[in-house]
Design a protein that fits this description.
single chain, 79 residues, alpha+beta, 3-stranded antiparallel β-sheet, 3 strands, elongated
């Protein structure tokens, strides 16, 4: 899983897909996930990092991560 090369990502959590003209605003945790995807972290590594950093149980993190990844796929932001 990789963020598409043409996707612009700002430090404030703004994503822009120049192919479609779509733009998205993500929250700080979403931005953290996108950064981990850019750094080629696996889904398991992302789940472990978020579980360690936040007071959230692993099942919730896993469900939310897969929902977020599906949203990124739906909008053609990741390959």
């Amino acid at each position: 899983m990789k963020i598409r090369k043409n996707i612009a990502i700002s430090d404030s959590g703004f994503l822009f897909n120049p192919s479609t003209g779509d733009s998205f605003s993500i929250n700080p945790i979403g931005h953290e996930i996108v950064q981990m995807i850019q750094n080629e972290k696996s889904e398991i590594e992302i789940i472990d990092a978020l579980t360690a950093d936040y007071a959230i149980d692993k099942n919730t993190v896993e469900k939310d991560l897969y929902d977020f990844i599906n949203m990124l796929k739906t909008h053609k932001l990741i390959e």
